[in-house]
Amino acid sequence: MKNIDQYAVFGQPIKHSKSPRIHRLFAEQTGENIEYTAREVPADTFDEAVDQFFAAGGKGLNCTVPLKELAWRRAERLTERARLSKAVNTLAQQEDGSLLGDNTDGIGLVTDLTRNHGITLTDARVLILGAGGASRGIIGPILECKPSRLLIANRTVAKAEQLTEDFADIGKISACGFDHLPGQQFDLILNATSASLSNQLPPLPERLLAENGCCYDLAYANEATAFVRWGQLQNAGHSLDGLGMLVEQAAEAFYLWRGIRPETRPVIALLNAERH
Ligand code: ATR
After folding, report:
1. pLDDT in the model for residue 275
2. Phi and psi of 210, rounded to 5°?
3. How much is the pLDDT for 25?
4. Which residue, 1, 46, 132, 157, shows the most beta carbons closer than 10 Å to its own?
5. Domains recognised in the chain with CATH numbers
6. Which residue's alpha carbon is nearest to atom 29 within ligand 1?
7. Where are the alpha helices (DSSP H) in the chain?
8. How far is the CA of 194 from the centre of ligand 1 (A)?
9. C-beta 90 within 6 A of ligand 1
10. Quinate/shikimate 5-dehydrogenase/glutamyl-tRNA reductase domain: from which residue to which, for each copy (predicted)?
11. DSSP structure string for 156-176
12. Looking at the annotation, which residues are catalytic?
């Protein structure tokens, strides 16, 4: 009998990861015979854990916090979007045994915004809050949608300025500190800071969001995050968290591994229904 193809997510902490659930739902839906597990892997044992996993016949890995940069270093080949984002969330073993690294976070976000929520990025004024790894992972796919403006605001302005340089070949980005936000307005505001996980918000002025604009928190939680609540208070047309992005980035990884695109909407609906 043929062995079942093995996949896993590595991270720390990993206990609450929804990835095993999502990939098992995809496998059920598509009839693909795979096994997907979660493993707690600290950064200092990452390389060893990757070696063991693939030596034992593993086919593909997802890597989450704090391992995405290590996975980027580890990959022997990179997709263009992974190269630019300096982070890898998906490793796939190629036929010659080498490891391909991809970053499906940005495309997952764009798909959730445009396809699932009908939000147009083309010609939109877009603001990203935060200039860390999460922000780096989404900039390329956002620029590809040709927004009229992309501003990155960060507590440490130099980090936002660095991103404008790193992505200069793809499109124009501007950078500022939070103190430069009053008086400006955006159609889409994305929270890519890690602040909302600790229920905090960067300082945001009134009228930052255009009428009927969209707020999107890359983080997700069972309850509305601080940023999602802020969006609701601004009467946003949509105020969303990152659950849809999580499912969409998983679908891209599944496609890379199996060559089949799962239906994401029923999976998002199911996970949403289980939240409360
Ligand atoms: P991640 O991989 O989740 O992006 P990171 O690379 O550590 O994590 O980046 C965290 C981001 O959240 C940074 O932009 C950080 O701002 P600084 O670059 O100034 O550190 C931002 N951040 C974290 N806590 C914040 C807070 N309380 N207010 C505003 N920004 C915050």
Report:
1. 86
2. -65, 160
3. 98
4. 46
5. 5-103+248-273 (3.40.50.10860), 106-241 (3.40.50.720)
6. 202
7. 19-30, 46-55, 68-74, 80-85, 105-111, 117, 133-144, 157-166, 226-233, 243-258, 265-273
8. 5
9. no
10. 120-196
11. SHHHHHHHHHHTTTT---EEE
12. 68
Backbone angles phi, psi at 187, to 5 degrees: -85, -25
Q: Report pLDDT digits (tens) over 53-74.
A: 999 999 999 999 999 999 999 9
Is 87 labelled a binding residue? no
Complex ipTM: 0.97
% residues pLDDT > 90 (the chain): 95
Whole-angstrom distance between the N-terminal and C-terminal Cα of the chain? 41
Q: What's the angle, vertex CA 26, arms to CA 53 and CA 247, rounded to 5?
A: 90
Average pLDDT, whole number, for the chain?
Answer: 96
Across 16-50, b (16+ Cβ under 10 Å) vs e yields ebbbbbbbebbbeeeebebbbbbeebeeeebeebb
Whether 194 lines ligand 1, by a CB cut-off of 6 Å, is yes
3-state secondary structure of 179: helix
Each residue's pLDDT tens digit, 184-243: 999 999 999 998 778 899 999 999 999 999 999 999 989 999 999 999 999 999 999 999
In single-letter form, the type of residue at position 18 comes to K
Judged against a pLDDT cut of 80, whether residue 1 lies above it is answered with no
- Whole-number Å distance, alpha carbon 24 to ligand 1 midpoint, is 32
